[in-house]
Amino acid sequence: MSTQEALATDNQADRWEAVRDLPPSAKLVAKVLDYNDTLTQSELAEETLLPPRTVRYALSRLEDAGVVESRFSFSDARKRLYSLTV
Fold first, then answer.
1. What are residue 31's DSSP bridge partners?
2. Is 24 left (phi over 0), alpha (psi -120 to 50) or beta?
3. What is the reported pLDDT for 3?
4. Which has fewest Cβ within 10 Å: 27, 29, 65, 77?
């Protein structure tokens, strides 16, 4: 393994450090957000097959850990868009 590959692997490990001790549902939501740029709560529930209440809890834990940010949707102000920040 080259030095650059080793650094890339270390950066990936450091990147997920804040998520490591969170519940499995939060890890799943974080991974889905990693694959998709921005999703609403209902889209996350659909993608993860988790109940909406579990997704809400996972998102609150991820926001507390500082790895997810939310903003209002321009197309529908009742909805929030979530994206991963790590």
1. none
2. alpha
3. 55
4. 77
What is the DSSP track for 44-83? HHHHHT--HHHHHHHHHHHHHHTSEEEEE-SS-TTSEEEE
Determine phi and psi for 22, rounding to 5 degrees. Answer: -85, 165
Read off the tokens for 63. Answer: 């926001």
**Quick check: pTM over 0.85?**
no
Amino acid identity for residue 75 in this structure: S
φ, ψ of residue 39 in degrees (nearest 5): -140, 155
pLDDT at 86: 85
- Structural domains of the chain sorted by starting position, each given as residue range(s) with its CATH number in brackets: 3-84 (1.10.10.10)
- Residue 66: Cβ within 10 Å count: 10
Residues of the chain with pLDDT under 50: 7
